[in-house]
């Protein structure tokens, strides 16, 4: 018993006290729940200077955003490592809590072994990974990191398209694959096209908005139109399209998209077909009106703005978008950047994030004035 007790204490210390620095990766997967950003998987080269000898990762860790974050050059963030025992190496995977209690669900995108069973559940309290069997699964797992969305009300995950490039012959998914996380039953729905490396964003009206990526048609890959967007409505299960107005963003793939409370989809980063960064790396799609409208973000910076990147993660915490990892066509990035999205007219890159900001002097004076009346 004493020996087992020592093991438990050592595991506790390893998770909560020892410093942990993640390996620099691109194509990781992130989920935000219970004030934590959980990260797992991704790709890393043996030689970071030329991207040769790619290996998959099964690292699993989180960043607690209940605490203030201050970004300083050369200083690591307060990452906490978690056990990845039982989890295969992977990248481009879908990661969500999907309305489940005390659990996270991971849908493997790609790994070296082409595993037949590619859905895993992580118990937040038990701190254990388990492979689970599902009914009527898709024939193969595909890249699904950014195009998979989850409706927490119905506990359904929606994955449109995707690609499996490590197979002997590239495979492209022509379906919308829907997993009911409550029953673990898949439903396969026809899709209008074969698309990969795009983003999917679920709106309050039930529409999933698919942005960017690459379309495979008759053996040819081309970047998708950013002005005409496919929509899938989760209420009536029908496909439609939206022709947008306003600014014309550069076509891109491997970008990120987050949704604000007022209906703005903030699209960040992305690359062209040669993995070269796009020149307008921060664009906004306003979905609050009947016709969606694009605009180019007006950016001011309290800190150095990030270099353009793709294959990263972006997580919205309150009014702040936290960008992690990624790469361009020349280098990896293990830097973290924070975008303040609270002012629609002026987006600001900042070096600090406080989940519980103190009232400004102006706000305090306003409160005093109100009380004195």
Automatic annotation (TrEMBL):
Residues 364-373 have a biased composition (Basic and acidic residues). It comes from the Eukaryota. InterPro entries: Kelch-typ_b-propeller (IPR015915). The keyword Signal applies. Residues 1-19 form the signal peptide. Residues 350-373 are annotated as: Disordered. It holds the Pfam family Kelch_KLHDC2_KLHL20_DRC7. Transmembrane segments: none annotated. Keywords: Kelch repeat, Repeat, Signal. PANTHER family: ACYL-COA-BINDING DOMAIN-CONTAINING PROTEIN 5 (PTHR46093), FIBRONECTIN TYPE-III DOMAIN-CONTAINING PROTEIN (PTHR46093:SF18). This is Galactose oxidase.
């Amino acid at each position: 018993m004493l020996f087992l007790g020592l093991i438990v204490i050592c595991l506790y210390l390893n998770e909560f006290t020892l410093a942990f620095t993640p390996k620099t990766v691109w194509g990781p997967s992130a989920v935000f729940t219970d004030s934590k950003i959980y990260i797992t998987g991704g790709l890393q080269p043996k030689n970071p200077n030329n991207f040769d000898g790619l290996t998959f990762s099964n690292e699993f860790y989180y960043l607690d955003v209940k605490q203030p974050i201050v970004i300083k050059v050369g200083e690591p963030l307060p990452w906490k490592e978690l056990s990845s025992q039982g989890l295969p190496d992977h990248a481009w995977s879908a990661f969500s809590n999907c309305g489940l209690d005390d659990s996270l669900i991971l849908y493997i995108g790609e790994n070296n072994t082409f595993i037949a069973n590619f859905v895993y559940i992580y118990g937040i309290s038990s701190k254990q990974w388990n492979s689970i069997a599902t009914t009527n699964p898709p024939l193969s797992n595909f890249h699904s990191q950014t195009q998979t969305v989850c409706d927490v009300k119905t506990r359904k995950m929606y994955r449109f398209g995707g690609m499996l490039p490590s197979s002997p012959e590239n495979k492209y998914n022509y379906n919308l694959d829907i997993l009911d996380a409550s029953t673990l039953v898949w439903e396969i729905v026809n899709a209008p096209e074969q698309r990969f490396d795009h983003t999917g964003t679920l709106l309050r009206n039930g529409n999933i908005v698919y942005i960017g990526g690459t379309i495979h048609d008759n053996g040819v890959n081309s970047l998708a139109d950013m002005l005409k967007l496919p929509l899938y409505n989760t209420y009536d299960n029908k496909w439609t399209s939206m022709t947008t107005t306003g600014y014309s963003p550069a076509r891109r793939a491997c970008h990120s998209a987050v949704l604000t409370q007022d209906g703005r989809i903030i699209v960040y980063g992305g690359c062209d077909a040669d993995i070269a960064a796009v020149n307008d790396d921060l664009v906004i799609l306003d979905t609050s009106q009947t016709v969606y409208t694009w605009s180019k973000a007006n950016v001011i910076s309290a800190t150095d703005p990030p270099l353009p990147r793709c294959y990263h993660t972006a997580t919205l915490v309150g009014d702040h978008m936290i960008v992690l990892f990624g790469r361009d066509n020349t280098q990896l990035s293990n830097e973290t950047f924070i975008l303040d999205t609270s002012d629609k007219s002026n987006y600001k890159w900042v070096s600090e994030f406080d989940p519980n900001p103190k009232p400004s002097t102006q706000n305090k004076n306003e409160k005093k004035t109100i009380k004195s009346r």
